[in-house]
Design brief:
- The protein is mainly α.
- The chain folds into two domains: 147 residues, Ribonuclease III domain (Ribonuclease iii, N-terminal Endonuclease Domain, Chain A), CATH 1.10.1520.10; 66 residues, Double Stranded RNA Binding Domain (2-Layer Sandwich).
- Helices cover 59% and strands 11% of the residues.
- It contains twelve helices and three strands; from the N terminus they run αααααααααααβββα.
- A three-stranded antiparallel β-sheet has the order 1-2-3.
- A hairpin with a 6-residue loop joins strand 1 and strand 2.
Length: 227
Amino acid sequence: MKTLENNLGYSFKNKHFLENALTHSSYANEARGGISSNERLEFLGDSVLSIIVSRYIYDNFKQMPEGELTRLRSSLVCEKTLCGFSRQLCVGDFILLGKGERKNGGAERDSILADAFEAILAAVYLDGGFEPAQRLVMRFVLPELNGYDIKADFKDYKTLLQEIVQRNPEESVSYVITDEKGPDHNKQFTVEVRLNSNTIGVGEGKSKKEAEEMAAKQALLLMGEPV
């Protein structure tokens, strides 16, 4: 645990926060004694991360319109980026997983590592307040923003689709999970994106977010939009 604290550059006053942040639901389900998973911390960490990143890009990208700010923020808090942060911290060496999840490579799974980063961030926030949480986030975010090219590096298909649909106020977009298969450690989701009640795209992914993005991408392609 001390090694991870060194990696984080933060020493916890209450070690329970860090232990909880590293407890995956598969481990909590197998353990006895009412151990809690990191899912609640992940929920809080997602919000803490969003406000830190939003405030920074709002203050430092003053000429960027709202739509591009949204895409920039999305690229900085997406699963791919967050799991990269976790790998830099070697979180996979410390996360507590159930036997089946660990056997199936859960310690290297992008979604688990991304969720763990958010949970750890929440743990830092609860233990030390906003400033150490902000330092942790910006330590990783600033290099991502160095020479950042939003159009080349990332496309948030859901946001792009929403911007197009909003041109017609009477239209609305919704995402519906139509299929979910596979064991807990290797789920496959199918999502339909619907314009009002009409399906305009279908996507698949290992997470709901990924499936939604792929459905939005298909819808954009069918609309003839460059993606």
